[in-house]
Amino acid sequence: MSRETLSKIENDNRTISAVELGEICSILDINVDKFFEENNEDDLTTLFRKKGNFSKETIEEIGELQEMIKIFINQEKIFRNEFKPIMRKPLWEEF
Amino acid sequence: MNNNKLNIPDELTRLQIKELAEDVRYKYSKKGLSDIFDIISEDAFLIRMPLKTMEVSGFSTCFQDELVVLLNSNYTLGHERYSGAHELYHIFYNSDIFKKEKLLISNAKTDEDTKADIFAAEFLMPEDYVKEVFYKIINVKPNDVLEKHVIRMNNAFKVSYKAMLKRLLQLNLCLEDKYNDLVAICSFENAEKLQALTKKEGYDIRLITPSREKYIPKEYVEYIKNNYENNKISYNNMKNCLNFIGLNTEQFEYEYPKEEEI
């Protein structure tokens, strides 16, 4: 894979194929699953799923609600100039 | 913790939680706060929103280090206020569970939720004052309580009819047999009958109907406006936030920017 291709993938300018993902994981010596892990620690929908038998519609609504809560909380941070959007690091710095 | 089908807690547990409720009430009364929504807003990011789902009446969570309480305003206002007091217990006394589980839902039925329900009753309907009001404006024997009496009481304490009735039973101001008769009117099928009776008693029906309120703390509206006016957020971002809480751009005389790329 060329440096240019890798750069495009990192910047979301190009999708990655399963083969390419496999190659990257092989080079970095990590499992492919690592790329599909979500940061679920604070994820409300995950927490709701864990807590009980809520319908799919409820979980979806909670997901939408969570996005709005995030936006509102970030408004305060933006107002106070404390908002720091999380920038994605290059792959070689992440692993 | 309780030993009957009506989930009336044992007296020792109730008295212990009554003390906790009194402590919390005192803390906020010193600040001049008495409304349950104002009280929650003091220590958490309160959102009141009419959810499409009725599976959730409210929940508390920690989100990006902020304590967030959400109340479903599609439930009746009386129910919503009770859910709010329930969440207040979690805010004060369940920080350990918050850290571990990060989410507490009103509808759940853990031991802590049972305590939170007892707390809500003690917080919104203080024993001494319930008795005082009862003897002042009702003053009948426990076997003579009528629907109209419960309505007068539930409006005095701004809770639902059912929560008030249960409290009267708990404080021995109403007999259990009588409770079983009086509880029928708060079923879904009898909603209109209860509303008619409430109006007949001279009260509005806000407590027994959903408020469908869309609320976030007022300072967040100011953050949104300020961020937009200082070009920190886009027009669409500002518009979406305002729309979510039932406000619109026209109210603040914001016009669609011609130059901005949206």
Binned strand content of chain A: under 5%
Low-confidence stretches of chain A: none
Biggest pleated-sheet summary of chain A: none
Strand order of the largest sheet of chain B: 1-3-2-4
Number of E-type strands of chain B: 4
Shape of chain A: extended
Structural class based on helices, strands and sheet pairing of chain B: alpha+beta
CATH class of the largest domain in chain B: Mainly Alpha
Strand content of chain B: 5-15%
Total helices of chain B: the number is: 12
Biggest interface found: A-B, 25 and 34 residues
What is Rg of chain B?
21 Å
**Average pLDDT number of chain A:** 77
- Topology pattern of chain A, helix = H, strand = E: HHHHH
What best-fitting shape of chain B do the alpha-carbon axes yield? globular
- Please tally the helical runs of chain A, counting DSSP H or I stretches of 4 or more residues: 5
- Spans of chain B of at least 5 consecutive residues whose pLDDT stays below 50 are none
Summarize the structure.
The complex is a heterodimer of chains A (95) and B (262). Chain A has helices spanning 3-10, 18-28, 44-51, 56-79, 91-94.
Give a quick set of tags describing it.
heterodimer, A: about 100 residues, mainly alpha, 5 helices, about 60% helix, extended, B: about 260 residues, alpha+beta, Arc Repressor Mutant, subunit A, 3 domains, four-stranded mixed β-sheet, 4 strands, about 50% helix, about 10% strand, globular
Structure, explained:
The complex is a heterodimer of chains A (95) and B (262). Chain A has 95 residues and is an all-alpha fold. Chain A has one domain (3-94). Chain A has helices at residues 3-10, 18-28, 44-51, 56-79, 91-94. The longest helix of chain A has 24 residues, at 56-79. Chain B has 262 residues and is an alpha+beta fold. Chain B has 3 domains: 11-124, Arc Repressor Mutant, subunit A (Orthogonal Bundle); 127-207, no CATH class; 218-260, no CATH class. A 4-stranded mixed beta sheet of chain B has the order 1-3-2-4. In chain B, helix 1 crosses helix 5 (111-124). The longest helix of chain B is centred in the N-terminal third of the chain and has 19 residues, at 11-29. The termini of chain B are far apart. The mean pLDDT of chain B is 91.
